Amino acid sequence: MMVTYSISEAAEKFHLSVPTIRYYDKEGLIPNLKKNSSGVRRFTKANLDSLNMVECLKNAGMPIKDIKQFTAWVLEGDSTLDKRLEMFHELRKSVLSQMDQLQETLDVVNFKCEYYGQARIDGTEKFVKKNMKRD
Q: HTH merR-type domain location, by residue (predicted)?
C-alpha cells in the first residue's frame, strides 16, 4: 500500500498553512492530487515533490501565474523541455541578482554592527564617525 499524507502533515512539512495548500490545489499547482472516499486530500510523495517545487519557485520570486505555466509544461511532457530550461535560465539570473542585492544589504548590516559595536565600546559615536568611513 502506498504511503500518503494528510493536508496537515503536508502543511507541517513545508511550514505552510492548510488554506495555502488548498489554494495551490485549486490553482492546479499539485498535479494528480487525489481525495479519499471521504473527500479528504491525500498527498503522495509525488504530490509532496510538487509542493516542494512550488515553494522553491515562490522563494525564488516567481509569481503564481508563472508557476502555473511551469506546472502545465511539466504535464505536457517532453515537448516543453526547451521552455522549461529557458525558464530556469531566466530564474537563475533573477536569483543571482537577488543574491547580489542581499549581499549589498548584508554589507551595510555588517558595517553597522561594527560601527555600533565600536561606538558602544567608546561610549559615543563621536570617535567612530571620524574613524569609520563607509565608501
A: 4-73
